[in-house]
Design a protein that fits this description.
By secondary structure, the chain is of the alpha+beta class. Helix content is 26%, strand content 27%.
Length: 167
Amino acid sequence: MSMHKVYLSIGSNYEPETNLHTGISLLRNHVQVETISPVYETVPIGKTQSPSYLNAAVLIQTDLDPIALKADVLRPIEARLGRSRAPEYQHIVPIDLDIVLFDNLVQEIGNQQIPEPDIENYAYIAVPLADIAPDYQHPVNGKTIAEIAAPFRGTQAIIRRRDITFD
């Protein structure tokens, strides 16, 4: 049984403190949670009617491949917390739990790519990830996660929430 090092992005804009804690607790029932980043609040990007998000990055160890991890762990956790992955955009998201990096794998899984292309575009993915994996080299562009996150740090679009922690 081969173990994989997987970085996840977890976020919520509906009862986010409760849903992030519940999501992490449910995740711990299925995989080995190694590290959780600090929580960051991000303002909505281009969707001003949406509430702010709380986001974190999570390092897990699992023997599941990416498809099984999504199907057997991540999507059931989202469903349990009321997340629908309907094709139309939803303003309220109880939980968003996705694979950002999976070992050094480069792969497409349905409509998602690994590594997550949005690492380079969105502070809510890059900054929390850089807190727990600053030296991890992006398997496609070769940049470290710290280099990718640097332009986002200190902007008004992302604020560290020191009042929210995980045990």
